[in-house]
Write a structure and sequence with these properties.
Elements (H helix, E strand, L loop, with lengths): L7 E2 L9 E2 L5 H9 L11 E3 L23 H4 L5 H4 L6 H6 L8 H11 L4 E3 L3 H17 L9 E5 L15 E5 L6 E6 H5 L1 H14 L3 E3 L5 E3 L8 H12 L5 H23 L1 H12 L8 H19 L2 E3 L10 H16 L7 H4 L6 H7 L10 H13 L6 H11 L8
Parallel strand pairs: 4-5, 5-7
Antiparallel strand pairs: 1-2, 3-10, 6-7, 8-9
Helix pairs in contact: 5-6, 6-13, 8-10, 9-10, 13-16
The structure holds zinc ion.
């Protein structure tokens, strides 16, 4: 998925929402400006107690509930025809599929080719290869075979040919070759090579905003202004990163957490009208006459102060995609593409994948993630990623997805 890095601030009805690239998604930027309205949704700012610690966030192989698969064979007759016809593995095979962590690159390759059936697999980092294999295995099991894997997986430099993007905007992509009908998952070597720059961009911004501080125990930490369910994990990564202890794969996960935290902060600050009301009420300070830049600086400062004084932060709850994180998230998104490609004809690529949304659909797509608004294909990738990570979506989001994908996408326990 390409990561949106440049933001413009706009405001949207209901969503209290923010931030899209003006050059990348001009129509949405315009739409959101048009839709700006007085927002009385102060009640959406939910106090959050950071002391309620979150446990580990990553999807682990152990969390798969295999017992649920026992009932599958009894249910096959009830499976709608559109799902049943797309199974390439028997349910028995899916049930038996068991991820094994590889110790070497060769072992990982063997698992991918022999067990998962990938024709060609070339990933030079064993930890990265293991995560890709784990994500693919979980995706097949959780979707009961609905997910279609790529034919090839490769580690390569991705040149987008689009000067707006740097290598850091695109951790992975899925190609579909017309003449061979092959689907290739490409993991971007440039992204891994430049990951420190990506991380430092975020850290420098936090530093400028006064959000890199020491906590009461003298430990370095990033102080978020909005609640973020990965707060503790983010700071664990931050400390390990400073000590030079993160592996390539862990850096990808850290970068992705930073991106998610930054999305939520921007979304909270962009709830401008309700936030101004809240701060006036809470601190007796009126920010309504400030310029946009002044507002951003002051609001951030006050929110940090509220966090320190009252030991609470506010929740933006901007997006319904919450659980997908890191390299796992990138792989699951790409598997959404490979599955979609296997259900359509190449001749329909433009219509089915690059098709745009009308205004109402854009607002619904935005509930998934900002990136889901790009086109139908990216909405499918983002939605499937979220579903496979345990996210639940509201019914309008489900309906929009089904209109793009032509059927629902179910995830089983
Ligand atoms: Zn994508």
């Amino acid at each position: 998925m390409r990561i949106l890095r440049k933001f413009l601030f706009s405001f949207a009805e209901k969503r209290s929402f923010f931030a899209l690239t003006d050059d990348y998604l001009p129509s949405i930027g315009k739409l959101l400006k048009l839709k700006r309205c007085s927002n009385k949704s102060a009640k959406k700012l939910v106090p959050y107690r950071p002391k309620l610690k979150q446990k580990s966030i990553f999807i682990s192989a152990e969390s798969m509930d295999n017992s649920a698969l026992k009932t599958i064979e009894n249910m096959i007759d009830e499976t709608p025809i559109y799902s049943a016809k797309t199974y390439s593995r028997t349910l028995r095979q899916i049930e038996k599929l068991k991820y094994r962590k590889a110790k070497t690159i060769e072992e990982a390759k063997e698992y991918a080719t022999k067990t998962l059936g990938i024709k060609s697999y070339d990933i030079p980092d064993v930890e990265v290869a293991n995560q890709i294999n784990l994500s693919m295995t979980n995706a097949i099991k959780k979707s009961r075979g609905r997910i279609k894997l790529p034919d090839k997986v490769e580690y390569t430099s991705i040149t987008t040919g689009d000067k707006k993007f740097t290598s850091l905007d695109c951790p992975a992509q899925t190609l579909w070759h017309e003449n061979t009908n092959e689907i290739v998952l490409q993991i971007n070597k440039d992204y891994f090579d430049n990951i420190d720059n990506a991380i430092n961009n975020y850290l420098n911004r936090y530093k400028l905003n006064g959000q890199l501080v020491q906590n009461s125990k003298g430990k370095d930490c990033i102080k978020l202004i909005t609640s973020y369910k990965y707060d503790n994990t983010l700071n664990r990564y931050y400390r390990l990163y400073k000590q030079g202890k993160l592996t390539a794969k862990a850096k990808i996960d850290f970068d992705n957490l930073l991106q998610k935290a930054s999305y939520e902060e921007k979304a909270l600050l962009a709830s401008k009208d309700s936030l101004i009301d809240y701060l006036k009420q809470k601190r007796g300070i009126d920010l309504s006459h400030l310029t946009h830049e002044e507002y951003m600086t002051k609001a951030r400062e006050l929110l940090l102060d509220i966090r320190n004084t009252y030991k609470m932060v506010l929740s933006a709850k901007a997006f319904e995609t919450q659980n997908a994180v890191g390299l796992d998230a990138h792989v699951l998104h790409e598997l959404g593409h490979s599955t979609h490609f296997r259900e359509i004809n190449f001749a329909d690529y433009g219509k089915e994948v690059e098709g745009a949304f009308n205004q109402e659909e854009l607002m619904t797509a935005l509930k998934i993630t900002p990136y889901a608004t790009k086109n139908k294909g990216e909405l499918i990738g983002e939605y499937i990623k979220g579903k496979l990570s345990g996210d639940k979506y509201s019914s309008d989001v489900d309906e929009l997805f089904e209109s793009c994908f032509k059927s629902p996408f179910h995830v089983y326990a």
